[in-house]
Design brief:
Layout: E1 10-11, E2 20-21, H1 24-35, H2 46-58, H3 74-79, H4 84-88, E3 91-94, E4 100-104, E5 112-113, H5 143-155, H6 160-173, H7 186-194, E6 203-209, H8 221-224, E7 226-232, H9 234-243, E8 256-260, E9 266-268, H10 275-287, E10 295-303, E11 306-309, E12 315-317, E13 319-324, H11 329-333, E14 340-344, H12 352-355, H13 358-375, E15 387-390, E16 396-407, H14 410-417, H15 443-452, H16 455-462, H17 480-483, H18 488-513, H19 515-530, H20 552-559, H21 562-566, H22 572-588, E17 593-594, H23 595-611, H24 613-617, H25 627-630, H26 635-642, H27 650-666, H28 673-696, E18 712-715, E19 725-729, H29 740-747, H30 752-764, E20 788-790, E21 792-798, E22 809-817, E23 826-827, E24 829-833, E25 844-857, E26 860-873, E27 885-888, E28 898-902, E29 906-910, E30 912-914, H31 931-934, E31 938-940, H32 946-951
Parallel strand pairs: 10-16
Antiparallel strand pairs: 1-2, 3-4, 4-8, 5-16, 6-7, 7-14, 8-9, 9-17, 10-13, 11-12, 13-14, 15-16, 18-19, 19-21, 20-25, 21-22, 22-23, 24-25, 24-29, 25-26, 26-27, 26-28, 27-31, 30-31
Helix pairs in contact: 18-19, 18-20, 18-22, 22-23, 27-28
């Protein structure tokens, strides 16, 4: 590896600081601003704090820059001299145009080795291995046989009886030709899948039963039952992930710290960019320096009960999942087999008489911990002694494991951390006042106080169940309190928003207005929610938020529109409370979090704690000591430890339930279904690994799983986040205008021909300093030919924080359709780029799309949109909601301010919500598709999705 030109070469020599800089001035500024201040706890830098005191006593007003000693780097150089070879392994530019750089850990630096674990030179080729030819489809006879198997079992999920029926029809059609189908029946097809060796991690099981003393009288039924646990060897599962060609370019081998090259600001994204990976590597090397050069593989676990059947008797399962921190967050969120099912835990049940007994509750905990310990037992030795593993790049590396994070909801966190419900599993705050400042829980602290204090004191003062030991105590350097990751879904979306804030608002109405008047207000809020204009990805609430069972998607959808719906019915401080909470949620869900983002997160949390006092002052609630809401205090620290929280959210395991448990269950005969679920998952894994294996050897092509073709005309590209693209989708079902005059009549814009002339003038003379409005019409080009009208356009943009491709690109359809699904017209609003150099709304304007059309003039194809401009109200966002306010723009004589713009100036769709409090309109009969025509004042909804939140500020 060569040292990149002008890459950071100067290290900070302060203990615990791993920053690198390109020049001495940058290092000096960093040390003066970071270490020569009291912004860090004194215990972190004790020696430096003393230096600071002595310096300030001598001359507090002196310029600190010259005080940097000339021998600032002596201690570092004496320990490890600066040289280009060493530096090349420490820092490297990444990303486009060298906008970022990484500081890599030099101890556990993932050196390549041979199969015996002997390190190889940096330029050594990979060890020889057997290459498969492109026409080798073993165990399948040919490509068609694999594609048919993949389609029937994995894509169509066809039941065995239907497979047999299809194959029988196929065989009958070939009788006259003397041919045979690829498979005889479903047994033949399943047999080929089962004979696949790749991805073959077998399921095993063990049983557990109660062995304690029976406390007098007749023993409880659960004491004599046997509990079965099914699992797969986690070591083999991890080997499969590391060897999978699907992850070759998506693995982080070395802990690193990412910085913006322009301002040296720290950035957190994937797991290995967090402090936990770096500090764990330091800890491992401190305990055993001989493991230098190994690869750290952080293990991420997740578990949660799930229900697969209610109507035919409640059927629950308790799956356990595993992932590794080396995989980037986007792959973990995209369910690309980066999260693997490794076990089904037992769920003991008993009679009502014994279900609430102390003995049964203790046994359930012990069963859970002992099961986890047994399942993960094979990982214990490689946590201290590295094992040699083949990676997907065909190199071997020495690997050392560490239990890193655990994805769980609050109830599961209580169980895992051996604490009492309503206490915090992360800190020692008392359950009566969780938001007071408190130390973080740790394994060492818990072990110490358990030895020193009585059981009752542990229970009352620390919320600890003292007679239970967490499973992490059986593994080296594992701390369950440190492992518990932030849970956006249950802590913020379902907990803080739905269970707390929405409920408080309803209780506020009852408390202030009484039950009858409160119901009327809630009905009006429901009507407001139902009247919101449609938008891509926005969940519809035709009956408002009045439904019995909430899902996570329901809560996410309501968060996007609720703040505008309640405004006018609640005090401003309630609106400000929701704004602060929503901003906190959207900030922590960003794909990349910077130091500036952390500052904004802290500010949003501060404002939330300030304004939510309105509910206590109104007598709605007595205490804010709520564990899930209190968890917001820990997000700053956990982001620094684990990277962006969206890579460790329980929504990942919730979604995995569908693929690994619920859908396989639907294909069982319901009798002893667990064994069938295990077999289905094993076959799915084999097909997935086989496909990746064939692709890596050139056996597959892009057409294997069918390319999706559309009748879209693409203009432009989307290579990176700066490129914006839009394309048309033509709908041929409805007749539209064929010329400009007809389109002017259809849109009721009589001035459209003149607008088109001004548009052509601006296209021909883009650098003309004159305002096109000042140029006489007769001097502008004229077009009277044929046009093509489109009902929608597709915009492609970089939005990694939202649901998107694994590279962060997202497609979004913008509608301009006179009739949408036979319900009415659908005309979206858009963001128009008016100043590419400005940020946020300073460079964007909002417009209502009336039509998409294209035409050719002098051999050039012009793709355009007819828009109605919106004007901003005020110079900044509304102080209460945080959203910009706009209104339809009009010219003289109440004419709409319309224009024709090139489609390349359209960034993406915009969502507007009426400012209901400013209208005296009964929203009962307002249809969503008439929203933009009925109201005259709107919020630019920055909460419509995460990308809108990032640009509409």
């Amino acid at each position: 590896m060569q040292w990149p030109e002008s890459a950071p070469q100067l290290p900070c020599d302060q203990p615990g600081c791993n920053r690198w800089f390109r020049n001495l001035s940058g290092l000096t500024k960093h040390k003066c601003m970071t270490h020569l201040s009291f912004s860090h706890p004194p215990q972190c830098f004790p020696d430096h704090a003393e230096v600071l005191s002595s310096l300030e006593e001598e001359d507090p007003a002196a310029d600190r820059t010259p005080l940097l000693p000339e021998h600032a780097f002596d201690s570092y150089q004496a320990e490890d001299p600066l040289n280009l070879e060493h530096e090349a392994t420490r820092a490297e530019y990444v990303g486009l145009s060298n906008r970022l750089y990484h500081n890599y850990h030099t101890g556990l630096n993932a050196r390549r080795c041979d199969a015996r674990g002997q390190f190889l030179p940096d330029n050594a080729p990979p060890p020889p291995h057997a290459e498969k030819t492109p026409d080798d489809w073993t165990p399948y006879h040919n490509r068609l046989e694999f594609e048919l198997t993949d389609f029937l079992f994995m894509r169509a999920e066809m039941p065995a009886r239907k497979i047999d029926m299809l194959l029988d029809i196929w065989a009958a059609s070939l009788i006259g030709l003397g041919g045979q189908p690829l498979f005889t029946n479903h047994t033949d097809l399943y047999g080929v899948i089962d004979s696949t060796h790749t991805g073959n991690v077998k399921w095993d099981n063990f049983t557990i039963r109660y062995t304690g003393e029976e406390q007098g009288g007749e023993p409880a039924p659960w004491m004599s039952d046997t509990y079965e646990v099914w699992y797969r060897d986690p070591c083999e599962v991890i080997h499969g992930i590391l060897a999978s060609s699907k992850f070759t370019d998506s693995l982080d081998y070395v802990p690193y710290r990412e910085y913006n090259a322009s301002n040296d600001q720290r950035r957190w994204q994937d797991f290995m960019s967090g402090d936990w990976a770096w500090e764990q590597a330091d800890r491992i090397l401190s305990d055993d320096p001989t493991v230098a050069g190994a690869t750290l593989v952080p293990i991420i676990l997740g578990s949660d009960k799930t229900t697969v059947s209610v109507a035919t008797g409640r059927t629950d399962y308790y799956p356990l999942y595993l992932s590794i921190g080396n995989v980037c967050n986007t792959l973990r969120r995209a369910h690309r087999n980066a999260v693997v099912l490794i076990g089904f835990l037992a769920m003991p049940k008993t009679t009502r008489e014994h279900a609430s007994t102390q003995a049964f509750r203790k046994f359930k905990r012990q069963l859970f911990y002992s099961s986890l310990t047994h399942i993960l037992y094979s990982l214990r030795h490689p946590m201290t002694e590295p094992e040699t593993i083949l990676f997907s790049d065909n190199y071997y590396r020495r690997v050392i494991y560490a239990l890193a994070a655990y994805i769980a909801d609050y109830e599961e966190q209580v169980l895992l951390s051996c604490i009492i419900c309503n206490w915090c599993p992360k800190c020692l705050g008392h359950h009566d006042n969780l938001d007071e400042d408190a130390l973080r829980r740790s394994r060492e602290h818990c072990d110490t106080i358990i030895e020193e204090l009585e059981f009752r004191q542990l229970w009352d003062s620390y919320g600890i169940v003292g007679d239970i030991v967490p499973f992490t105590n059986d593994f080296p350097c594992a701390d369950i309190h440190a492992m518990l990751s932030p849970d956006i879904l249950h802590q913020l979306i379902k907990g803080g928003f739905k269970d707390h804030l929405v409920d408080w608002v309803e209780r506020y109405f009852v408390h202030i207005h009484g039950k009858t008047e409160a119901d009327k207000i809630l009905d009006d809020i429901d009507r407001r929610i139902a009247a919101v204009a449609p938008f891509a990805g926005l969940r519809r609430f035709p009956q408002g938020r009045h439904f019995k069972q909430w899902t996570g998607d329901d809560s996410k959808g309501l968060m996007k529109v609720y703040i505008a719906a309640i405004e006018g019915h609640v005090p401003k401080d309630v609106v400000r409370t929701f704004r602060a909470f929503l901003e906190f949620c959207y900030l922590v869900q960003q794909n990349v979090i910077t130091e500036q983002t952390l500052t904004e997160i802290d500010d949003a949390l501060r404002r939330f704690h300030l304004y939510h006092e309105v509910f206590r002052n109104a007598g709605v609630i007595d205490s804010f000591s709520l564990p899930r809401q209190h968890a917001m205090k820990h997000y700053h620290y956990l982001i620094c430890q684990f990277g962006a929280p969206n890579g460790l959210c329980s929504s990942i395991t919730e979604s995995k339930h569908i693929k690994a448990v619920k859908r396989p269950y639907q294909h069982t005969n319901r009798f002893q279904a667990l064994g069938q679920i295990l077999l289905i998952n094993q076959r799915l894994d084999k097909l997935t690994v086989a496909h990746a294996d064939f692709k890596s050897h050139g056996s597959t092509t892009n057409e294997m799983h069918g390319q999706h073709h559309s009748i879209e005309e693409v203009t432009g590209t989307a290579d990176d986040s700066e490129d914006r693209m839009a394309s048309y989708e033509e709908e041929l079902e409805r007749a539209r205008a064929r010329n400009v005059g007809a389109l002017a009549t259809e849109l009721r814009v009589p001035d459209l021909p003149n607008l088109l002339r001004r548009f052509l003038q601006s296209q021909f003379c883009p650098n003309d300093s004159h305002d096109p409005e000042d140029i006489p019409y007769h001097e502008c080009p004229v077009y009277e030919g044929r046009i093509r009208v489109y009902n929608s356009a597709c915009s492609t943009f970089f939005a990694p924080s939202d649901l998107s491709g694994i590279h962060g690109m997202r497609h979004e359809y913008i509608h301009s359709c006179p009739m949408w699904r036979n319900a009415g017209p659908h005309f979206d609003c858009v963001f128009i780029i008016t100043d590419p150099q400005a940020e946020g709304m300073s460079g964007l304007d909002v417009a209502h799309v009336l039509c998409f059309f294209s035409f050719k003039y002098q051999g050039i194809l012009y793709s355009c949109a007819v828009i109605h401009w919106f004007d901003r109200v005020g110079d900044g966002p509304d102080p209460a909601t945080g959203m910009w306010v706009v209104r339809p723009g009009y010219l003289r004589r109440n004419l709409q301010n319309t224009a024709i713009v090139h489609i390349d100036t359209i960034y993406r769709a915009a969502h507007l919500i009426p400012v209901y409090a400013a209208h005296n309109i009964n929203s009962t009969d307002i249809r969503p598709h008439r929203c933009y025509d009925t109201f005259h004042l709107f919020y630019v909804n920055k909460y419509a999705d995460h990308h809108a939140f990032e640009i509409a500020f």
